[in-house]
Write a structure and sequence with these properties.
Layout (H helix, E strand, L loop, with lengths): L1 E6 L17 H4 L5 H9 L7 H11 L4 E4 L6 H16 L7 E4 L3 H15 L6 E4 L5 H10 L3 E4 L1 H10 L9 E4 L2 H6 L3 H9 L6 E6 L4 H10 L4 E6 L11 E7 L5 H12 L4 E4 L3 H13 L4 E4 L5 H12 L5 E4 L1 H4 L9 E4 L6 H8 L9 E7 L4 H11 L4 E3 L4 H22 L6 H7 L5 H15 L48 E3 L9 E6 L9 H12 L6 E6 L4 E6 H11 L3 E2 L2 E2 L2 E3 L6
Helix pairs in contact: 3-4, 4-5, 7-9, 15-16, 20-21
The protein binds adenosine monophosphate.
Length: about 600
């Protein structure tokens, strides 16, 4: 097997061309056509990620490839872009021309959306096919002909068996998250599907881990594949700055709320907030300003003059947040930074180290905060592995935390005002009221007015569900405040017997038309109702209202889910992990209690 290696940290140097907007040449240099490069530029991508830099050229050459990459590294684009680029040359008598196999319905939709986004300008047609959706609808689109099919193995095989999916024209097959597909028991389905495709096809396999079974699949079904392995830079123990590092596991839909709450809690003096793309930088800056923060955007598409203006605002204290891409932030020197915030987990752990190296300088303590989606927990582990430090998994501040914090800040400001003196002209106001009211009451009213003038309790939303239970790590490794810590774990019954069910999430009512879902983890694994609600809403995208009663037993839990979304939940949770362990998730077969 040919092995190509790269250093993950090898990226454009400070002050390189990338800063003035030419970084997109990075994609053109990989051999992609101008129209695709333009699309990436419009999406705000500034440079290829390490896995993209390594994988795209050999796939474009038509080579088979085995790539080791987790979600969040940019692997979807690493295979989708060359698939799109090669479609024209591979198109023959029948379609689809490319087949991408993924383990879950959610991933099928995500990958399909990505192919659609990247290939829109080139009129690429793509169809996701997964269980739970009507065959007829999928068949209608298939019979019209699509270039790319993104499928879960089970449903792909069902279509093949019904004669509604013809793979004879397939020139490229991608196996995405191959380890997950094997873990979910799809090995035989994969074999059967591959047998339906032409011998001479190109095959690309991505997997987060490389167990022997994956190597065996690669040997059997791939021809002399290029193997992409991103070599890790070594970070010496003494090199890591003194930085308090916390990660929050937050579903995408809640990220902005989570960030706003963490910022309110941390009240940073000057923070650098990293996003992956220019578009995300602009969008987040706008949203943060709408939330009452003073944020400025900086990215590779801005002129030097614009960048200087932004930096001046940050240094002068007119802005407290600088929202940036990695490319734009290289070369910036901000001495008084207190916080680095990763709105997205960086695509390579080495970027994380570079990013957080901007705080904690000269013996000062810095803070690094990372928001990770439940699916990105592997990237957090790679970061821990590289930095040899545990990341504390935090819980997003609750409304009560924020209220307390706000009062604390108010108290500190009052104290400063008292110490500053020079307030005699206000004395007459207090004295004139003191005949009628007690001095403490007058002070309380003044504090209330100050509180309201400072915006009062700005955030009157709901507490976010706790999705941190999906971090794939044993509970004992977690930081304080994480669910399922030792303190919360209940001892097992004496003979290991199941104790009776406890109705969790007391306020949750039974749903009318609902399906009971069995989850193979319960009280003994430290599972709490919030963990289940967080995991279910986070992974499947359904709303908390579609979840009914929750029963937590010693070894398992039962959750009621509205009938019309039950399949969606079952499919998106298949292969999911709770407290680092794979758990069985299925329809409950037991009697209705
Ligand atoms: P993936 O690892 O494929 O799940 O991708 C993670 C995220 O990174 C997705 O939201 C992509 O849109 C984004 N992304 C992929 N490649 C790049 C890039 N070169 N620059 C910026 N963002 C990217």
């Amino acid at each position: 097997m040919a092995v190509r290696k790269t250093k993950a940290g090898d990226q454009a140097e400070e002050g390189s061309e990338s800063v003035d907007g030419k970084a997109i040449e990075g994609f053109a240099a990989l051999g992609l056509q101008p129209q695709l490069v333009d699309t990436l530029s419009q999406l705000g991508y500034e440079e290829p990620t390490p896995i993209q830099r390594e994988a795209i050229p050999p796939i474009l050459e038509g080579r088979d490839l085995v790539g080791m990459a987790a979600t969040g590294t940019g692997k979807t684009a690493a295979f989708s872009l060359p698939v799109i680029e090669r479609l024209a040359s591979l198109r023959g008598k029948s379609r689809p021309v490319a087949l991408i196999l993924v383990p879950t319905r959610e991933l099928a939709m995500q990958v399909s959306e990505a192919v659609h986004r990247y290939g829109r300008a080139l009129n690429v047609s793509v169809l996701p096919i997964y269980g739970g959706q009507s065959f007829a609808q999928q068949f209608r689109v298939l019979s019209r002909g699509v270039d790319v099919v993104v499928a879960t193995p089970g449903r792909a095989l069902d279509h093949i068996n019904r004669g509604t999916l013809d793979l004879r024209g397939v020139g490229m097959v991608v196996l995405d998250e191959a380890d997950e597909m094997l873990d979910m028991g799809f090995a035989e389905d994969l074999e059967a599907i591959l047998a339906e495709t032409p011998e001479g096809r190109q095959t690309v396999l991505f997997s987060a881990t490389m167990p022997p079974r994956i190597a065996s699949i690669a040997r059997q079904h791939l021809t002399n594949p290029v193997q992409i392995r991103i070599e890790r830079e070594q970070v010496a123990a003494g090199e890591m700055p003194r930085v308090r590092q916390t990660a929050y596991i937050v579903p995408r839909a809640h990220k902005l709320t989570a960030l706003a709450r963490v910022l309110d809690m941390e009240a940073p003096e000057a923070a650098l907030v990293f996003c992956r793309t220019r578009n995300e930088v602009d969008e987040l800056t706008e949203k943060l300003n709408a939330h009452g923060h003073r944020a400025e955007a900086i990215h590779g598409g801005m002129s030097q003059e614009q960048r200087d203006r932004v930096m001046k605002k940050l240094r002068g204290g007119q802005a407290e947040l600088l929202v940036a891409t990695d490319v734009a932030a290289r070369g910036l020197d901000i001495s008084h930074l207190t916080h680095v915030i990763n709105y997205d987990v960086p695509s390579a752990p080495e970027s994380y180290v570079h990013r957080i190296g901007r705080v904690g300088r000269a013996g000062r303590e810095g803070v690094a905060i990372t928001l990770a989606e439940p699916r990105e927990h592997r990237l957090l582990r790679s970061i821990e592995y590289l930095t040899k430090r545990k990341l504390e998994i935090g819980r997003v501040p609750t409304i009560a935390d924020l209220r307390t914090r706000k009062l604390e800040l108010l108290r500190a400001s009052l104290r400063e005002t008292l110490l500053a003196g020079d307030a005699d002209r206000y004395r007459v106001v207090v004295e004139s009221l003191s005949d009628e009211f007690d001095a403490v009451e007058i002070a309380i009213a003044a504090v209330r007015m100050a509180h309201e003038a400072m915006g009062g309790d700005v955030d009157d939303g709901e507490d976010l569900p706790d999705a941190s239970a999906w971090a794939e790590r044993p509970s004992r490794e977690r930081g304080t405040g994480a669910p399922g810590g030792k303190d919360r774990k209940r001892p097992a019954g004496r003979d290991g017997d199941e104790r009776g069910p406890r109705r969790g999430a007391g306020a949750r009512e039974s749903l009318a038309g609902s399906t009971r879902i069995f989850i193979g983890a319960g009280r003994e694994a430290g599972v709490r109702p919030g963990d289940l609600v967080g995991a279910i809403t986070g992974e499947s995208g359904i709303s908390g209202r579609e979840i009914g009663a929750i029963e937590i037993n010693d070894r398992f839990s039962i959750v009621e889910i509205a009938d019309d979304v039950a399949n969606q939940v079952l499919e998106s949770l298949r292969g999911g992990k709770i407290k680092g362990k794979k758990v069985i998730i299925r329809r409950d077969r037991g009697p209705v209690r």
